[in-house]
Amino acid sequence: MDDETLYTIGALAERTGLTVKTIRFYSDRGIVPPTMHSPAGYRLYDIDALTRLELVRTLRDLGVDLATVRRVLDREVSVRQVAAAHADALDVQIRVLRTRRAVLRAVAERGSDSREMELMHKLAKLSATERQRLVHEFVDDTFGRADANPAMMELVRTTMPELPDEPRTEQIEAWMDLVELIGDEDFRAAIRRMAEYQARERAAGDDTGLHHDLTEAVRDEVGRAVADGITPGSAAADAIIDKLTARYAETFGRPDGPAMREWIIERLEVANDPRVERYWRLVAVINDWPELPDLAPIFGWFGEALRAR
Predict the structure, then answer these.
(1) Domains along the chain with CATH numbers
(2) Which residues have C-beta within 8 Å of that of residue 303, sequence separation ≥ 6?
(3) pLDDT tens track for 25-74
(4) Do residues 160 and 132 lie in contact, with contact meaning Cβ atoms separated by under 8 Å?
(5) Cα–Cα distance between 177 and 42 in angstroms, integer?
C-alpha cells in the first residue's frame, strides 16, 4: 500500500478536528480500527477509515450512542433509520424545552414561588394522555353516573383541554388554573348537584339536551334588551319574557304559565355557577378557541325578569 494514502492518528486529528485521545478510543474499541501498523508499530489509517471516522463524529454530534454507531458501521441498521429515530427523539426534546420555556415565562410573569413553579413544571410535563386522565377523572366523579345526561357527558369528553406542543404563557397559566378548579371539592359538589338535577329531569321524562338554539334565542333577545336599556322589572320586558317562555314551552312540550316559569327559574338557578363558565373559558384558552361570550349577565337578566313576574 502506498504510504501517501495512509494517515497517522495525528494526521487524522488534523483532518477531522477530533483529539488524538478520542481517535485512539474509537480505535481501541474497534469502531475505527487501524488499517495497518508501521514498522515502528504506529497505527495507520486509510481513506476508508477516515470516512468511517467522519461518520462516527457526525453521529456522535447528533447524540447517537456508541452501540448504535457500531450497528450503523456494521450495516445492521441504516443511517436513514437512525436519523429518523433520532429526529423523532429530538422532536420530543424540543416539545419539552418549549413547554419548560412557557413555564418559566409564566413563573416570571406571575411572580410564582418555588412551590408553584415546581407544580407548574410537573403538570406541564404530563403527557397529553395523562392530562386528559385528570379531566376524565373529574368528569367521572361528577357526571359519572348511569342516569347522567348523555349530551353533557359527550360535550365534556369531546372538548377535552389539550395543551399544544408549544404552549403560550397564558395557556400554561390556564392549564394550572383548570387543574386547580377541577380539583376543588366544592366545585365538584356543585357539578354533582347539577348532574343529579338533570338525572331527576330525565327520570321525569323531560328533555335534558343542550338546546343550543334556545340558548342563542335567549342571548339574542336579552342582548337586544340590555343594549336598549330595558330593565328586567320594566313593562317593556314583558313582551320579551312572553316570547322566551313560549319558546321554552315549545322546546320542552310544556304549557306556558306560572309553573313553567318557576321551572325555568329553577333550571337557571341550578346552572348559574360562575365556575362552570370559568371552566369553559379556561378550556377555550388552552385549546386556542375564540373567546367565549359572557352569558352570565344575559341569563342573570332573564332570571331576574322571571322572578319579578
Answers:
(1) 3-77 (1.10.1660.10), 89-185 (no CATH), 211-307 (no CATH)
(2) 265, 268, 269, 272
(3) 999 998 899 999 998 889 999 988 888 888 888 888 877 888 888 888 88
(4) yes
(5) 67
